[in-house]
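Example 3.2
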Amino acid sequence: MNGFAGHVWVLALVAAVCALITVHLLAVRRTAGSSLTGAVVLTLAVAAIPAVRGEPPHYAAGVALTAGGVVAVVWATGRSRRHRSARRSARADYEAGTAAVPLFAALAERDRLAAELHDVAAHRLTGIVVAAGAALRLADRERTGDALRHADEAGREAVRELERLTGLDATAAGFAEVDALAAAHAVDYRRTVGKAPAGSTEATYRVVREALTNAARYAEGAAVRVRIEPTDDRDEPVRAGGDHLFVVTVTDDGGTAVEPGLGTGRGLAGLAATVTAAGGTFRAGPHGEGAGWSVRASLPAATVPPLRRWPLWRGTAALDYALVALAIALSLGASLLSADLPAPFGDVLPALVTVVLSGLHAVPLAWRSRAPGRALAAVLSALLLWWACDRAGWTQPPVSDIFLVYGWVELTLVHSVGVRLPWRRGLCAPLAVAAVGGLALASGSGITGGRTAAWAVLAGVLALPALAVWSWGRRTARRHERLRAADARRRVLLDGDADAAASAQRLLFATGLRDTALRHARAVVAAAEEKDLRAVREEARAGLTALRDLLSGLRTGDDADDAPPPTVSGITALAARHGAVVRYVGARRPLPAAVEVFAYRTASALMAVGVTLTVRTLPDGVEVSGPAPAVPAVERRLRALADAAGGTLSTTGRGAVHVWLPEAFPWRSE
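Structure, written as tokens:
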């Protein structure tokens, strides 16, 4: 019979080990929700066994608490392994893709310069051609004088702007610049929108400028109306991201084209990309029954904050709360695992005091990652309170036994203090643990002689392991700091290579401008000073032709055949290849390599033809959002990706999905 019982215990032990391994593997390979469900089911199954066997209620409660604590720690360690594995994979992809960063930085700079070249220089030169052509046809002296003055002023502006293109990015235009632009063209203008994000005002300026340029080219003499007004219309809520919108409309009644061949063929396509990247929608086409034309752009008037949810089982909090469960399981659960009801639970008051003190001693572990100093202070305060209750005879077991068995709670927090706090502040932690722990041990019944002397000796003995654990935390912190510094140095070198590639592209661009459009713009100014209107028109037309040829040459140049680098900046190139648009919100700044890769992977999963993705950079992480995928497998992939990164996935009623990727976890805590 005894042999049979022994076999039963062996089988039970094997089953428990297999169950714990299963929980660990679920935590490693599945998302938090599904793996947590498995852990809870296992805990409930174990807790049900003593109840089915007819064991006393306190024994069943002890089994449930103990099993829950052990399962929680096993689950949390599996979650940590899942995050570490995902981070290693992301870092490997980042290292493999960094070689393409300079090339794509050069391509991005090329596209930026090309877009601004079209918007700025073509606008000025077109106005000169239109004014000069009209004056030559009318052969009016006053009109000729006005055209020459305009050519001189606009030509100088074109020269200045072309020279500026080889420098840094210009400051984004605001509504004041839009007002000035409309006044310069003397159009019917009304604006009832007070302020908007910088991306929206910049897009508004470009829409108005391009629409006025096209009206001058193709609708000479037509009445032009410009309106910038708020609206509640949300034609495409996913593209707008749920923002409040305002509408920019530019319409004309139709007219005659000044001269053929003035356009570059990129204006409306470039505007559509600009407006969509700002989070809006764009359309242009015939207006009314005649030959009129209308340009309409809906743009965000205010930025909506990102949607974020941070469940307790995400991030570093998973292990912290698992430690809380383990501490409660060992303090209360183990006490209840006896055939007879333990003494502390024999009456209501001692049981209540024991439960409260055990909770006060365990719960601060939940603050281990966020505020380890405060957590340690709370634990030591709970220990002192337990000592006071012990002296009053209210608690069992005595505080000396509690510290001997559960002193690992204090040591765990001492290690966290060493990792996260400066050494001058953190050095107090091991000394405080030694002092309070010595007091707890000196109050035990086995102490003979003077209690004060015993306290001094025990505190000195405890100081050695406490200082050792704190030093271990300090070494861990220094190792992490060295890794972060090495990452920062690599990032600086990579950014330097990208800047050098962009500078080389600007130099190449400047050479092309000097030999083509810039030379013709200067010739326009010279011809205007010599009062030669015909030469003004010819040089301006030649400048526009040179611009068109330069832009065509840039677009047909050798593009990169490699995959874009797996970074936040690389999402732009990825979107261009998929016929999508990416909108960046927030201050762009360097991010940990793993976060960059996770953001890139998220954008890649959301990418589809015609969609607009929003990448929000905030102080504590990145959010990537876009239209919710129609295929369930893609959504499952996104959810798994967010889970592996320690983030969350949420959806809105407008059919958008938001993936939040925190910067703080797990990179700052390991």
